[in-house]
Amino acid sequence: MRGFAQDLRYSFRQLKKSPVFAITAVLTLALGIGANVAVFSVMNATLLNPSGVPHADGVVALRAGYNQGDLGNINLSPPDFEDASEGKEVFTSAAVMNGMDYNYSPDGGGTPELLRGAKVTWQWFDVFWAQPMMGRVFRPEEDQPGAEHEVVLAYSAWQKRFGGDPHILGRKLQLNQESYEVVGVMGPEFAWPNRAEMWTPLALTPSRYTDPNYRFNEYLFGVARLRQGKTLADANTYLTHRTQQVYQTGGRLSDYAKSAQWHQFAMPLIEFVSGKMQKPLAFLLGAVALVLLIACANIAGLQLARASGRQREVSIQIALGGSRGRLIRQALSESVLLALSGALLGVVVAKLSIPLLLALAPPSIGRTVSAPMDARMLLFVAGIGVLCALLCGTAPSWHMTHIRWFQALQEGGRSDSASPARQRTRSALVVVEIAIAMLLLFGAGLLVRSMNTIQQVETGMQPHGVMTAALTLPKATYKTDEQQANFYNSLEEQLKQIPGVQHAAIVDSIPFSNGGGSASFFIEGKPVANGALGPHANIRSVSPEYFETLGIPLMRGRFFTSADRAKTQLVVIIDDVLARQYFGDSDPIGQHINFGDPPDKDPWREIVGIVHHARATSLENDTNEGFYYFPMAQAPNDSSFIAVKTNGAAAGLVGPIRNAVRNVDPSQALYDVKAMDERVDDSLIGRRFLVVLLSVFAGLALLLSAVGLYGVIAYSVRLRTRELGVRMALGAQRSDVLKLVLGHGMQLAVAGLVIGLGTGLALSKVFESLLFKVSVFNPVALLSTCALLMGTVLFASYLPARRAAKLDPIRTLRDE
Description:
alpha+beta; 3 domains; 8-stranded mixed β-sheet; 51% helix
């Protein structure tokens, strides 16, 4: 231990003598380590250890699905949850929630505010092992109809909305114009789901859980915690058994379940939350690991160059009996000091980078996770520091102990020409750097082209100039469909009076808002066999000018009008996808559909129009299902979106829209206020997150590779100074010297390019899973990547080549 301490002090003195090298090495490592720590921290908080959920690996999401259709992974129905809650031998606790937003009316008046929340069953907090910081959580008797006027506040809402009032417990809050008592405040780490600000009891009637007619009404998100010793496979075995029991009950619902291949299953909560970000995050971690590898290769190359200057010193130590083990320790101790300094500074870089990383991330990650520097992260930093020390120090320590000390003493340390192995090692390190940079540039180029392709996808509407906002009508005030319809009718009239507004509409779920539902339906004259899976489509309720507001073109028939009211003929508009899928060559206009089960229990609705299909959630993946639309007056909803079309900038509509809402009902709060263009753009945020970061890492890799190549060429020129001087003395032109040096750099570049390109093509399956209608074998991407890399290499090689071409042969030979 004492000897190692001496080696560290000796290495520190050596680094002090080379401050430029030390600072460059530490900063390079800090960038590489900081990027790795930042990306891993997001992975840790998202995939490995979600904040606020102790032992998250024991929590599963309860799901239902249909193998027929596009509904393989959906929410639960109340009877589905009842099945899971009875699995006491598998689950310690189970709970469900339904998202619910509340209009909060401050005491003494004031502008109403929206509180985002959830209605949950009483065991919700037990599943997550979440304890309140103040007060308590819900009791079983409070999760009953009529007894559910209690609220638990999230820490953020307690601080932001109520100023951290220490006397908040027992306070009465007016939520949706009803009184709720605050019974608890959760700690700052827990806010499931989706950064909820509050929770109230779900309070479903007991019959909802047991009535088989609710079996396929899936609208609840369920979670459960596994018993100790139980696995995900045990949970799915149990849920499969309950699915089979439903199949065996017989009757119409059982036949339907079997025909649709309905089933229940569980999946890890971590996997459900991270969703499609698992693969991109893993891809990014691999990318930053490659950047760190380049950084370590650069430092190893620099240390090899420094070892050349210390060749005589080391030779003397060997001649005097110095052991190779001691020399290895000296070489590694220098790498340890660099790695330790780089790791410490890298933590600072990561701390500064993580907020930016979360800001670029999709809302499902950026708004729902925190990335603290916990024990797992410190262990990762320590591990990566040790790895860097080994990567940076292995090659220099090996070469230091394989010096031909007798020859070095004879030559007086004047030349390193007798060490071609060292030069080959440095060249090999640069080839690896260029290959990695080529791989990252290749991937980034493909993702950029893929992003451009997605942005050209037609949405089926004209989102420019449309401002949208959401509101929720409290059922305490708007108890009937007629009251809701009257509110929307009055609001629509107010919106149309705003100067510059061309059209205004109300819809229960706006496109690209991650909302909306779907349902089966029946076509008159086309009976469905008992238990068979009938037609299925997405469903929306819209006001008359909805299609004109969003620029969805009419293909046949007519739009809704103000005459389509609650007591008139029930009508429906369908899109062209639904028309093709279920009506074929026949004309849908004038035909009838309904939504009863069985059909004779629901009135028929006449199809009066066909509109163009509009994408609802994604530019990348469109559902195979069509849409049918109801008039808002005939099917109102207590939660809806406002959409207003202007001939100017949409941003200028926010204030007038708020005023229009206040004119109709001052107690209503607007939320989720966004331009339609912004909603469409936000749907690409996950892909943009990957493209931006990979492009940054690829650029960093290219820069580091160029620096490494410059170092190798400059070092090679220094070694060959006498040779170049002789060539020029014998008649070689400066252009010949320039070509000679550039040729060396281009040889290394071509070798790295071929290796990197070959690796990229070998990993084509990995790239293809992240691309959208772009082939890995894309000639434009290949040529542009190669051109960028070769141009950078040419520039990095030209600088030392130009210096070599300016050598004075007479002075060079005289100095030698």
